[in-house]
Amino acid sequence: MSLRNRVSRLKWFLINIKDVVRMGRFYQRDSDQKRIVYLDLERNPYDRYLYSWCLFFQISGYNVVFRMRYGLLGSWATSMIVRANVNAYFSFSKPDSAVLTVTNISGKQHAFDFFLTHDYFTNHERAWYLSMPMVDSFYVDPIFQYAKEYQQNDVRNLKVFFAGRFVRDGYNRSELKDYFNMYSRLEQLALVKKNFTGMVITPTTLDVLEEQRSDIVIVDRDIVNVPPHRLYKALSKAEFFLSFAGVVMPLCHNVVEAMAFGSIPIIQNPLQYHPALVDGENCLAFSNEHTLVAKLQEALTMPPSAVAEMRKNVIAYYNKYLAPQQSIANVMAAKGHCDTLVIVGEYRSLDFLRASPSMPQ
Asked: So which domain of life are we looking at (predicted)?
């Protein structure tokens, strides 16, 4: 580890320890807390995703207890958990009443229900893949609770919709092509504009989301910020959601948000979701420019009855695999059948691909 990384880890350790004490995050063994999930992690390479799963556990009525470890507390990602209004605590030992135990320490997994890895883009045996979450604010506010009310909306004035960022430095990187043979966000946007000239609306105000029936609406959130309380309503008015990849990986939170509110994804790599999305059933899948154009044309001309059937399948998939409480229920049901949990680590997940001799370095 470089000196810079060691200094950074020490800095975050001191910040997090201070906040653990200040916010009363120590677990009391004689407390009346039940339904405890115990995580013994020697590090936190999971970006924001471990925090998202803490929110999932809280929504499902669980308390999360972490083993006090220097590597775990020496992470900026752990500070998200320490400072948030989430039922997460720290302890020097395992609580007796833990109903689920997880570790990422090699050699200790035999004493735990699950070994946690962020090697997400590898196929693992006896593994349960933790679902991709929405952006954290959808759980904190909590906007996700509106999904059941709005996902059934069948009055949708937006045929194909996307809202997200297109920053050149962030969304035009080579990893997507190198490791997944996918378009970057800017490459895909250019293809859509080239093939659907005059049909793509890139609004400068939010009015188009509510007032105009439009074929393809792509909102650059650096130009027009769509606050979460308006975004979910826009998603519930979109028949299809044009999915773009994340910064360096195929997965992106906005696909989950779209599916939660009944918008059917048009997506390049459905196999990266677990279980995989199925073309023509709960998504429209494309692999190149030709099929991207074909799937967009299919979406624009699909009969209402076929759209309604696909929307029903999308909602069923979300409710079975992506909704927070059901996601936790799935993990609990996997105990005894699986011994590995696989979580997204974004940049860190790509490290496993970079280490493969068959992949570009």
From this structure: Bacteria
**58 found inside a domain:** yes
Determine the Cα–Cα distance for residues 130 and 330; give it in Å rounded to an integer: 9
CB 341 within 8 A of CB 102: yes
Q: 46, 36 in Cβ contact below 8 A?
A: no
- Give the number of other CB atoms < 10 A from CB of residue 240: 29
pLDDT value at position 169? Answer: 83
Could you list the residue range(s) of the whole structural domain that residue 249 is in? 137-323
Q: Which residue is associated with the tokens 């039922």?
A: 87
Question: What region, left, alpha or beta, does residue 343 occupy, with left being phi > 0 and alpha being psi -120 to 50 degrees?
Answer: beta
Asked if pLDDT for residue 168 goes beyond 90, the answer is no
CA dist 8 and 74 (Å) reads 8
Averaged pLDDT of the chain: 93
Establish how many alpha carbons lie within 13 A of residue 184's alpha carbon, considering only the half-sphere containing its beta carbon.
Answer: 17
Number of domains in the chain: 2
**Cα dist from 345 to 12, 13, 284, whole Å:** 19, 20, 26
pTM of the model: 0.94
Mean pLDDT, residues 251-259:
97
Based on the domain organization, do 113 and 145 belong to the same domain?
Answer: no
